[in-house]
Amino acid sequence: MTREASLTAARLxxxxxxxxxxxxxxxxxISTLVLIRHSVPASPLEAGExxxxxxxxxxxxxxxxxxxxxxxxxxIGVLRDRLAEREDRFFTTVFLGSGLxxxxxxxxxxxxxxxxxIAYEADPNRLLGSTTFTSARAIVCEIMNVYAIKMAxxxxxxxxxxxxxxxxxxxxxxxxGYSVAVLLLLSSRYIEGIILAFPLWVLLISVYILIGNLxxxxxxxx
Length: 222
Prior knowledge:
This protein has 222 residues and is mainly alpha-helical. It contains nine helices and no strands.
């Protein structure tokens, strides 16, 4: 294989890898959030009845979180590789500085819910109705519905700005990203399911990149 052909193959693999990683992240996170929302009441002041009947379902959903995190890291890394010399240092710093805290808060929230399940299995009578249970539920709710969702909005703004400057995705997706980001930044903690807007936007980007890559591949082979 010639050097030019090798470079062409590398250019084709990078967006495809980003697309696959983004699709995996979106599917895993959406599945996790939907399973948890169907099992756990949205109110942080609920009594914890789900622990008696649906704790295994929630635990199964939590097992998807690490894999969603790995896919998200891969998505970030391949997008940076795709930008290469066109990378803007300021917006790339915001890109990483919002994406990584979002991922950290996602892991912390999942770990706290998993800890609640383990504590319940160890001593059900002491956990339910305790201040420990109420505090854990309230902290998870605050982290995901206030802080993580804001980091997701900043991540979308940074990604959309990089997209407009480098044209690695369509402009209409970037402008749609700004709208989604404003929705996330201004959303209330009481708007149920608003966090789903983030993985859905990543899914849109990923599908667009994958389709574009598949369309270019036959033409590159000619």
